[in-house]
Specification:
Shape: globular
Largest sheet: none
Strand content: under 5%
Number of strands: 0
Number of helices: 10
Distance between the termini: 67 Å
Radius of gyration: 21 Å
Order of helices and strands: HHHHHHHHHH
Length: about 270
């Protein structure tokens, strides 16, 4: 519920921005987003001040022990999760940015393409609500693997069928994005505890965010090299399936394997 806001914004913003751009140009679109950000800042600060209180020292001390950052970087489960989240974000990140140019190249008007783009925001919103419900009842990496496989199906449909499959692809990608970003925080706490939660979550989410930036670059290179988005869509779909496989093979919670100890130095014989 708390993370539903970005999905709602992704649903509402594209059609509004499309109208601004059609009437006043793309620079006016950036100016409109900047204005909304400035006006939102005092509202956000005000909301954050409601009900603020300090966490009792006893509660803070009760946090379970966790791996250190250095230990996590040598931990097989942590590296598996990082690899899975990067592959998943690369796979979905490209189409999230390229959906509108892909559709306008195929003959869609900017307004119609923005409506399809808005489906991503709608399904992100629904995905976060549904996936949040499911991970309280089903092993979270399996939920992430299932959502990622659905996103791969959407990319394959778009690559094979063409723009007619764009609404389906947008919905399935949104569901995947709604699951993946939320599950990062959940599995970080369940696998590694809270003592180093900020560092570990920051590293996993940073890797996920980096993948979201790499995905659009891959689609752009593919479109430039082949004159079509289809080859890159097949590649991104394959990356999604690889990420789903990594998540599906994650061990049960509580099975964190400590990193292998470093070998003791060999002392010279006297």
């Amino acid at each position: 519920l708390a993370l539903a806001g970005p999905g709602l914004a992704a649903l509402v913003a594209p059609p509004i921005l499309a109208r601004v751009i059609q009437a006043h140009g793309w620079r006016a679109g950036y100016q409109a987003m900047a204005l909304v950000t400035v006006l939102s800042a005092p509202v956000v600060l005000g909301l954050l001040s409601i009900g603020r209180r300090k966490v009792p020292a006893a509660a803070a001390a009760a946090a379970p022990a966790a791996l250190s950052l250095a230990g996590a970087l040598r931990n097989r489960i942590f590296l598996r999760l990082m690899g899975g989240f990067v592959l998943m974000s690369v796979g979905v990140g490209g189409l999230n940015l390229h959906m509108i140019p892909l559709l306008t190249d195929a003959g869609y008007s900017l307004g119609d393409a923005a409506k399809v783009q808005g489906l991503i925001g709608l399904s992100v919103l629904g995905g976060r609500l549904v996936m949040g419900y499911l991970v309280d009842r089903i092993f979270a990496p399996w939920v992430a693997a299932a959502a990622t496989s659905l996103a791969a199906l959407g990319l394959f449909a778009l690559a094979g069928v063409g723009p007619a499959a764009a609404p389906l692809a947008a919905i399935l990608i949104g569901l995947s994005m709604g699951a993946e970003g939320d599950i990062i925080g959940y599995v970080t706490a369940r696998y590694f505890g809270l003592a180093s939660y900020g560092q570990l979550y920051g590293l996993l989410f940073g890797a996920y965010t980096a993948g979201l930036g790499i995905g659009p670059f891959i689609l752009a290179l593919g479109e430039e090299a082949f004159g079509s988005y289809r080859p890159a869509l097949w590649i991104c779909g394959g990356l999604l399936l690889a990420g789903a496989a990594l998540m599906a093979g994650a061990p049960r919670f509580g099975a964190v394997v400590p990193p292998s100890p470093r070998p003791a130095p060999v002392l010279p014989s006297r």
